[in-house]
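User: Working on a comparison across species. This one is CARD domain-containing protein from Oryzias sinensis. Can you predict its structure so I can line it up against the others?
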Amino acid sequence: VREKPSPSEKTKPSFHQLIHRVTCVEPILDQLLQEDAIQQEAYNLIRSKPTSQAKMRELLDHLRASPAHKDIFYNILKKQQKHLVEDLEGNS
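Assistant: Here's the predicted structure for CARD domain-containing protein from Oryzias sinensis:
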């Protein structure tokens, strides 16, 4: 019996879309840092990237190692970018 996928697993097929469609990365980073889902060093590295796509790519690379942190990211994304998440879930 397969367990129900975690919320972050729903976003896996949409990583490419997330990279290209999330344009306001900083508020997500702020919340991830506040919830200890990323460290200050990663936060600084991601913020230093020149484009939102580069920031999202780096952020997703950091989150790949931890399903719990991916779930935190997904919950933040649902709050901050509700319509985007609904669209991505509809296209998955």
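For your comparison, note: Residues 8 and 70 are 5 Å apart (CA to CA).

User: Helpful, thanks.
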